[in-house]
Write a structure and sequence with these properties.
CATH topology of the largest domain: D-Maltodextrin-Binding Protein, domain 2
Low-confidence stretches: 1-55
Number of helices: 17
Distance between the termini: 35 Å
CATH class of the largest domain: Alpha Beta
Helix content: 25-40%
Strand order of the largest sheet: 2-1-3-15-7
Radius of gyration: 22 Å
Largest sheet: 5 strands, mixed
Amino acid sequence: MKLKSVLSMVLALLMVLSFAACGTTENNAAPVSTETAVAESTPAVAASTAAEPAPEGVPTIDTIKLGEDYKDIKASLKFLTHRTDLVDTKLAGYITEFKKLYPNIDITYEGITDYAQDVTVRLTTDQWGDICMIPTTVDKAELPNLFVPYGDKANLDQTYAFLNDFSFSGTVYGMPSTANAQGIVYNKKVFTDAGITAVPKTPDEFLAALQAIKDKTKAIPLYTNFAAGWTMGAWDAYIGGSATGDADYMNNISHMKDPFTDKGDGTGPYAVYNVLYEAVARGLTEKDPTTTDWETCKPMINKGEIGTLVLGSWAVTQMQAAGPNPQDIGYMPFPITIGGKQYASAGPDYTYGINAKSSQDNQIASMLYIKWLTEQSKFAYTEGGIPIVKTDAYPDVYKDFTGIEFVVNNPAPTGEETLFNDMNTKSEVGINKENTHVQGIVEAALSKAKKMSDIAADWNTKWAKAQEELKVAVNK
């Protein structure tokens, strides 16, 4: 199906969703990252059969010498961003600094509130702008038709990290803005007041710490952020590398028999989700999850009214900036230990994409700006992220990750680039989707309608049915 042919279908679905939706997505957040991008509530952009190469003359990002090449180029760029909170501040400052090198390149940011749905629709046209943060609704096979290549992945891997998510057939089409490690935001003073002297390393230790916070302080031990919807998807980010230490886990899960079953050793997907179930069931979260509020939680944890928030590292700087106690905000690995060692999933935040239908001058100017953002803006350091340039040092936010091995998901095997997407959609389990199975865990724990083992059994049944329908080989 050609890309433009899905426009009417997408628009029709969005009209339905607009009446059914109970709230809007908070767009200051980073998407949960897996190597295979997962579709959100809007349908994925369909793959076309023919890829269109970039025009000749557009340099690869690794060959550019900033401040020396293309000094006289003139262009006016439109940049779509989910960071509505930064358009008039940090991003405006980036433009000012970049124009010192390239005064004839003008850049206008457009902040979009409902980013994923809006940009998914815009990408069905050619005139959406010049640069965007690529939404996870884009199929990998469609990348060559939509975006300008940054270069050969094998070459770019020598300089840049976290390139897997939007690479296709050995070519990179999305350059990460920063990367995130997956862990837990916590208030260090609350932990001290509760008598917690070391960050927990297992699910049982973490639940014990939450109980101590409840018993010895006035803070909410674990704030679920249930009402926002998208925040609950953070839990899905730990089921791969953090819970298994396996960089191929998210590729292999499509072939696994009953992947959500309790392994009995405090590891794997079940162990991750059971932490949430038990925290809710034991009364270690807010009393009414439907009353949670994303913006409110930031000053609450800064002031010590919340003990922990399960979110990516991108959230740390927002919590630090939300009140007078930035020094109290820490970040720790998810509490799972595998054979005496802890791991942390890590992957890219939103990635920059350059419109394949822009003029050649605009494409070159876009490449220049993205190289500057990647190498000189220091965006990762101010956003609690991991730098994309491999030689750059990690920010201080990762102090509690000393000795922790970061796990970056490997690319999917040839021929299986979309298999996880297909399995996730067909099964309707909904990993990394908004308003999903993770919220169902909270609801079940509150009502006591189901045990975590019952929920996992339901997911396994759906997974097995999808494997059968898609004729996926299952490893016994």
